[in-house]
Write a structure and sequence with these properties.
With 443 residues, the protein is of the alpha/beta class. It has three domains: 88 residues, NAD(P)-binding Rossmann-like Domain (Rossmann fold), CATH 3.40.50; 208 residues, UDP-N-acetylmuramoyl-L-alanine:D-glutamate ligase, CATH 3.40.1190; 132 residues, Protein-Tyrosine Phosphatase, Chain A (Alpha-Beta Complex). Helices cover 34% and strands 22% of the residues. It contains 17 helices and 20 strands. It has a six-stranded parallel sheet, covered by helices on one side. Strands 15-16-20-17-18-19 form a six-stranded mixed sheet, sandwiched between helices. A five-stranded parallel sheet has the order 3-2-1-4-5. Helix 7 links the parallel strand 7 and strand 8. Helix 6 packs across helix 12 and helix 11 packs antiparallel against helix 12. The chain is globular and about 65 Å long.
């Protein structure tokens, strides 16, 4: 019996362990931190051995293969030892996809992955297809595949997941954008671009590569690669050679001269970035021959994910918006760009190599005050002192919301769009968003 060791007992790790057990592996799970009670229960129920708050070498270094949770960095000592021994290391997605014959739709990019993945899943589900959603969103793909076999799988794929994918084939690969992110874990922007393009690595002529031709980094990456898949570019700036584009205020998708058209004002997801997300999902719908009226209905009635430009409500005429999922500066740029009135910007957390120069013009135009939410806010002060008159420091969601509220006036917007990771003060971006919403409702 082959031995599978899973490093990390979170959603993806526990899912991989359950699938491995079902497929006949001798499975052991190891987590350097505390394992949540809900995951302990799953491991116990499936008779899987596990440990927490340590990595025991003798139980790990005898593995035939290791599944690594995406949050574990390459510099982790146990991972270094695993690689030195030559033990293969894969992601949960790579492991899970061995055990399915489903067609795969993979979505990656610096921003918009979750929205596009969930919108694409929504379209396929409404079309009556047997579809599963997994990857960097929702339930573990491996755990779901241990329970049922779908016809289609929609996957949100982070660069960390792609880094440990080698043989998996994505039939419909979507690359939305590539902007600086995670440069604390990648040696250079070029390495990060290469990571994103791994989504295309095993595609054949039967597959499709759906990408934003307006994105400079994507087009730079395209110039260095020979793509086997059918190319399906989309753009808001030009129509030549595109599968999807804008004509005035109309979104057009053309597949074999069979055109789908829709006003951008009918889209459920408004804002320039969401036009791209809707285009990408719509292209998949067209490639799968889903009816035009159903695609149009889905694009017009879809409800956005939590923590992404989520309107929490108004208090004394001040609107509060939760964009906690904006964990990098490009995502925050999109959020700021969509603001129409005076904005109090709540920003901060664990910086991932942000260059705030890219948002300075937007901040000058739209931001009346900045509320820093983090343990180290010096970089934010250095970037915006002299541009914004009022910059205050806070160390909790409640404190940040109260500070913003006291500075606000009727007609203002308080925008939580942190541009940073959340782990200095919160469990994750969802926890940060929930605490923000709770604080607003307590005003």
């Amino acid at each position: 019996m082959k031995r599978l060791v899973v490093l990390g007992a979170g959603e993806s790790g526990v899912g991989a362990a359950v699938l491995g057990k079902k497929k006949g592996w001798d499975v052991f799970v190891s987590d350097k931190g505390k394992v949540k009670e809900k995951y302990k229960e799953v491991l116990w129920n499936h008779g899987i051995e596990w440990e927490e708050e340590k990595h025991t070498e003798e139980f790990i270094l005898n593995a035939d293969e290791v599944v690594k949770s995406p949050g574990i960095p390459e510099k982790a000592e146990m991972l270094k030892q695993v690689r030195e021994k030559g033990i293969p290391v894969v992601s949960e997605i790579e492991f899970a996809l061995r055990y399915t014959k489903a067609k795969t739709i993979g979505i990656t990019g610096t921003n918009g992955k979750t929205t596009t993945a969930m919108l694409t899943h929504y379209i396929l589900e409404k079309a009556g297809l047997n579809v599963m959603l997994g990857g960097n969103v929702g339930k573990s793909l491996a755990l779901q595949l241990a329970e049922r076999e779908p016809e289609y799988i929609v996957l949100e794929l982070s660069s960390f997941q792609l880094d440990d994918m080698f043989e998996s084939r994505i039939n419909y690969a979507i690359l939305l954008n590539i902007t600086p992110d995670h440069l604390d874990r990648y040696a250079s922007m070029e390495v990060y671009i290469q990571s994103k393009f791994r989504i295309t690595q095993n595609q054949t002529e039967e597959d499709a590569f759906i990408y934003c031709s307006d994105d400079e980094s994507i087009m730079k990456g395209m110039g260095k690669r020979q793509m086997k898949a059918k190319l399906c570019p989309f753009s808001t700036k030009n129509s030549q050679g595109q599968m999807a584009w804008l004509r005035n205020e109309e979104l057009i998708i053309d597949n074999h001269n069979n055109q789908f058209t829709m006003s951008i004002y009918e889209l459920a997801l408004q804002g320039r970035h969401n036009v791209y997300n809707s285009m990408a999902a719509g292209v998949v719908g067209k490639l799968l021959d889903i009816r035009k009226d159903l695609i149009r209905e889905c694009l017009s009635d879809y409800k956005n994910v939590d923590h992404r430009l989520e309107v929490v409500g108004k208090v004394c005429g001040i609107e509060f918006i939760n964009d906690s999922k904006a964990t990098n500066l490009n995502a925050a740029w999109y959020a700021l760009e969509s603001m129409t009135g005076p904005t109090i910007w709540i920003v901060g957390g664990i910086d991932k190599g942000n260059d705030y120069e890219m948002v300075k013009d937007l901040v000058k135009q739209k931001v009346k005050a900045i509320v820093c939410l983090g343990t180290d806010n010096q970089k934010i002060h250095d970037a915006f002192s002299g541009i914004v008159d009022t910059i205050v420091d806070t160390s909790s969601a409640e404190e940040a919301v109260k500070a913003a509220y006291y500075m606000g006036r009727k007609g203002d917007t308080v925008l939580l769009s942190p541009a940073c990771a959340s782990f200095d003060l919160f469990e994750n971006y969802e926890d940060r968003g929930r605490q923000f919403k709770s604080a607003v409702r307590s005003l």
